[in-house]
Fold this sequence. Notes:
Elements: H1 9-22, H2 36-47, H3 72-92, E1 99-102, E2 105-106, E3 112-113, H4 116-128, E4 132-135
Parallel strand pairs: 1-4
Antiparallel strand pairs: 2-3
Amino acid sequence: QRLANNPSQDWLQLLEDGVLRAAPAGFNQVFTGMSGSDANEAAKPIHELDIPAFDWPAAPSPKLKHPLEQHHQENTTEEDRRLHETENLIQTIPNPVAAVIVEPIRSKGGDNHASPRFFQALRNITRHKNTLLIIDEVHIGVSTTGNP
Length: 148
């Protein structure tokens, strides 16, 4: 029997194998944890180093109106606008973009989230631009908030 949200070992191996297959050359390990605090604890020695901060560009998340059913067209337009801004950023910044990092549900910034169509379109953009798409899913716990 496993505890609460702990994934089965088979699932964990499948996740690690998939991440490593998609990872750039030279990446050969995967750290998995049950929360963002696990990652922070594991990274504490790194925090003690003098690591410069980067001026990374940020594309704003879509701000959807609720109830979603009543604002479908406005929300679609908003998501398309944000997708266009993201694609434009990838194309126009001077250095190649290694990855796009996105939080599917931004709980700390208000309960903001986008549609599955938005994330599928974002994945298409990153695939077309040969850029990694990293999903920071601390709040959603890899589908523990619903069906995968």
